[in-house]
């Protein structure tokens, strides 16, 4: 334990070091300086499925992959200080609602630029890529649901599940 005059300068030095290392404004995601992460956490985002159109084109000339899927999404940046870029919706999984059985994996493409500014919402559409072979046998007339994943380039940790969708087939 320090006594006398030596304890005061060391206490002040410790307080100064703590003030320099701690970000200003506790709980504020706008912290500046060395403690601000270069890549903001994906947990600051919220993704919602707004609409899903899914069907199979079984016309007389059936393509190798007859399943068509188009999903409208909204991505909300709940941070007032971080813009996001490099986001994408690369994939989704379809399941049969009646027994939760896995039907297939979809790869998506989109014209979305992958950016969401601070405190803003971006709405965009993704479309299933047409594959060279059938992904699954279309469950015509059955209810299905879709899991969609948002990626920040490091991992696809943010997902949303659609409500039940009746899988239609066009003959």
Report on the architecture of this protein.
- There is one protein chain.
- The protein is mainly β and 171 residues long.
- It has one domain (44-170): Immunoglobulins (Immunoglobulin-like).
- It has one helix and nine strands, in the order αβββββββββ.
- It has one helix at residues 7-21; strands at residues 45-57, 67-77, 88-96, 102-109, 121-128, 143-151, 158-161, 165-166, 168-170.
- Strands 1, 2, 3, 4, 5, 6, 7, 8 and 9 form a nine-stranded mixed β-sheet that branches.
- A hairpin with a 5-residue loop joins β3 and β4.
- The chain is elongated and about 80 Å long.
Shape call: elongated
Secondary structure tally, helices: 1
Q: Structural class of the secondary elements?
A: mainly beta
Number of domains: 1
Span between termini = 86 Å
Report the CATH architecture. Answer: Sandwich
CATH topology: Immunoglobulin-like
Mean pLDDT: 82
> Would you list the SSEs in sequence order as H and E?
HEEEEEEEEE
Full CATH superfamily name = Immunoglobulins
**Rg of Cα set:** 24 Å
The share of residues in helices is under 10%
Beta percentage is 35-45%
Largest sheet: 9 strands, mixed
Task: State the low-pLDDT regions, or none.
Answer: 18-37
Q: Mind telling me the CATH class?
A: Mainly Beta
Strands, count: 9
Write the layout of secondary structure elements.
Elements: H1 7-21, E1 45-57, E2 67-77, E3 88-96, E4 102-109, E5 121-128, E6 143-151, E7 158-161, E8 165-166, E9 168-170
Parallel strand pairs: 1-9
Antiparallel strand pairs: 1-2, 2-5, 3-4, 3-6, 4-5, 6-7, 6-8
Task: Describe this structure in a few short sentences.
The chain is mainly beta. The protein is built from one helix and nine strands. It has one domain (44-170): Immunoglobulin-like.
């Amino acid at each position: 334990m320090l006594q006398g005059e030596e304890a005061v300068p060391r206490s002040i030095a410790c307080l100064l070091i703590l003030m320099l290392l701690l970000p200003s404004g506790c709980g504020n995601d706008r912290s500046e300086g060395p403690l601000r992460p270069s890549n903001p956490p994906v947990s600051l985002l919220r993704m919602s499925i707004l609409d899903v159109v899914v069907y199979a084109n079984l016309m007389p000339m059936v393509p190798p992959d007859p399943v068509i899927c188009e999903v409208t999404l909204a991505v909300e940046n709940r941070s007032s200080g971080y813009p996001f870029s490099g986001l994408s919706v690369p994939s989704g999984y379809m399941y049969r609602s009646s027994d939760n059985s896995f039907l297939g994996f979809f790869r998506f493409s989109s014209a979305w630029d992958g950016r969401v500014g601070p405190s803003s919402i971006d709405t965009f559409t993704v479309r299933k890529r047409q594959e060279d072979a059938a992904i699954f046998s279309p469950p015509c007339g059955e209810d299905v649901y879709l899991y969609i994943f948002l990626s920040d380039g490091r991992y696809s940790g943010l997902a949303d599940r659609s409500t039940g969708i009746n899988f239609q087939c066009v003959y």
